[in-house]
Specification:
Elements: H1 22-25, H2 42-49, H3 81-91, H4 93-114, H5 120-129, H6 132-145, H7 151-169
Length: 184
């Protein structure tokens, strides 16, 4: 979108954790306001109309009706957008970015060492939806039990640990598409 440029490429205007998006990781998306290739976005237009705010919480109308469908996602889950915006506002962007950078590192580690070609979405969802302490525990448990295993077995173990952590938190690690939208 013309004139929509952002310095923050880890966390979008609307609360998506762009640094944990499979499209961005694959080089298919520059991120929210990342320059060439931006998709037209109603929230970006809204942000520009509200004086070029950096995050939706800075708007006097926040949270608006745009957050009603947060249970769905696109290439990245929208489930925690509102929660993540509130967390970033409460803790401050420096602390929020530090946590996101660590989550990005964990996701990259999982993808490089435990992805058998079928786990990218699962690992990205886990990095987005699980707490940092859960992800740290998963890494600790993996290092103890997967040394020397073939990739397929390592991937299965990592996926099982992610699912176990999600069950403990009552989280579903499936990307939910809006009704009528198919997954590509």
């Amino acid at each position: 979108m013309k004139d929509f440029i952002r310095a923050d490429q880890l966390f979008s205007l609307c609360g998506l954790n762009c640094g944990l998006c499979t499209m961005r990781l694959g080089g298919y998306c520059p991120g929210c306001g990342g320059g060439k290739g931006n998709q037209s976005c109603a929230i970006a237009r809204c942000g520009l109309d509200h004086g070029g705010i950096a995050y939706c919480w800075q708007c006097g109308e926040f949270p608006c009706a745009r957050y009603k469908e947060d249970e769905y996602g696109s290439f990245i889950t929208h489930q925690n957008r509102l929660r993540d915006l509130e967390k970033a506002r409460r803790t401050g962007m420096e602390a929020y970015h530090a946590e996101q950078r660590e989550k990005c590192g964990i996701l990259h580690f999982l993808l490089e060492n435990y992805n058998d070609g079928r786990r990218k979405t699962l690992f990205a969802l886990a990095a987005n939806l699980l707490e940092l302490e859960d992800l740290r525990e998963i890494l600790e448990r993996l290092s103890d039990k997967t040394a020397g295993l073939p990739l397929r077995e390592r991937a299965g173990r990592a996926a099982a640990l992610c699912r176990e952590a999600a069950v403990r938190r009552g989280i579903d690690l499936r990307l939910r598409k809006a009704p009528g939208k198919s997954e590509k």
